Amino acid sequence: MTNSEKLFERGCRVLPGGVNSPVRAFRAVGGTPRFIVKGLGSHILDADGLEYIDYVGSWGPMILGHSHPDILKAVYDRMVCGLSFGAPTGLEVEMAEKMVSMLPGVEMVRMVNSGTEAVMSAVRLARGATGRDKIIKFEGCYHGHSDAMLVGAGSGALTQGEPDSKGVTKGAAQDTLMAQYNDLASVERLLEANDGAVAAVIVEPVAANMGVVPPEDGFLQGLRTLCDRHGALLIYDEVITGFRLAAGGAQEYFGVQADLVTYGKIIGGGMPVGAYAGSRALMEQVAPTGPVYQAGTLSGNPVAMAAGLAQLNIITDHPEIYTVMETSASYIANHLRASAEKHGIAMQVNQIGSLLCPYFTETPVNCYAAAKKSDTKRYAAYFNGMLKRGIYLAPSQFEAMFVSSVHTQNDLACTVQAAEETLSEMA
Ligand code: PMP
């Protein structure tokens, strides 16, 4: 028995599925999750001493790689002054100033502890500010596990939401309307059918929880126009794209601004952090200046702020990382396509910036229905082939591959070689 197997067996006795977040259990790909003991740069080491090139990167935050010395130093330096006070610290002000300076249209920020919390709070703010109840989301977009956002499969584009999880009441789900990503007409129909009742349209500007699906030309601009016409707010969930597509996130990358934006992951540098942000007029609706209540004992935690600030400072000092990551990601994407073609494997590789995803299907993937056509058994075979060759990918088809700024030429060469061997084996 390997050490990971032993830990998993013990974990399954005391943690549901042996894990604290479902995808980590490897259920979609089979086998035993690797228990990680250490990360350095683009590599991670498991409990059996096996080393992997990591393309999960904690699902996004490790954009500068693991254990970046400046970030670790910021954490140590801060930690010795105390871990939490429940009173404001200067670091929170510095973090908000930093974010405001980097993000288009953002005048104020509220820090929270996760992406889930950020979205839940932004949705509440949108409802409070507009006095409307309904929210339009897109099938296949993930916005954390708050009740109103756990609505997905099972409902047609024009019907009212049905809960996607047991424990979510019909009441919590009934105000969530479902549209189709990259399909403006589906949004327009919902806005017209619910005229004056829609508080916000929430979207992942690049859908990165159904694999990776970039917005088609005009999609985000079309959402902006439709929201303005119907008096609804546009919320970008930038928990994945924030500070990753560009220093200013998707708003900068696509040049289309939202009213409220949610962030997570990257602004914590690996510590648990989220944030929601927007114009002063909207953000001052939040308590204590406004009537929309939202609070948090550990929000703006000084150690998390120190880690995140160190990371954002490095990002702003090194704007070249975005070109580096894009070049690395497109190198992998091109080699995957070439290997798939060589071995006669039906594969679509979507890539934008440092995000990419191979789908095992013949048809291009531009929406949830198309993503669902991917042969997930083939993805599992691909995942396991890569894992045994030392490449750590997302253990599910419907996730992104995250390239960091510290994946080396050698990492990339090993990765495409492993993919070539795996796809040859699968052919
Ligand atoms: N929104 C998006 C776009 C996400 O990808 C995620 C998590 N992957 C969340 C929200 C929820 O964030 P968290 O897991 O930090 O609660």
TrEMBL record:
Record-linked NCBIfam families: hemL, PRK00062.1
Pathway: Porphyrin-containing compound metabolism; protoporphyrin-IX biosynthesis; 5-aminolevulinate from L-glutamyl-tRNA(Glu): step 2/2
Complex formation: Homodimer.
Cellular location(s): Cytoplasm
Record EC number: 5.4.3.8
HAMAP family from the UniProt entry: HemL_aminotrans_3
Family that this chain belongs to: Belongs to the class-III pyridoxal-phosphate-dependent aminotransferase family. HemL subfamily.
Keywords, sorted A to Z: Cytoplasm, Isomerase, Porphyrin biosynthesis, Pyridoxal phosphate
Protein name: Glutamate-1-semialdehyde 2,1-aminomutase
Leading EC class: isomerase
Superkingdom, taxonomy of origin: Bacteria
Species, as recorded: Agathobaculum hominis
Catalytic activity: (S)-4-amino-5-oxopentanoate = 5-aminolevulinate
GO molecular function: glutamate-1-semialdehyde 2,1-aminomutase activity
Classification via InterPro entries: 4pyrrol_synth_GluAld_NH2Trfase, Aminotrans_3, Aminotrans_3_PPA_site, PyrdxlP-dep_Trfase, PyrdxlP-dep_Trfase_major, PyrdxlP-dep_Trfase_small
PTM annotation (N6-(pyridoxal phosphate)lysine): residues: K265
Cofactor: pyridoxal 5'-phosphate
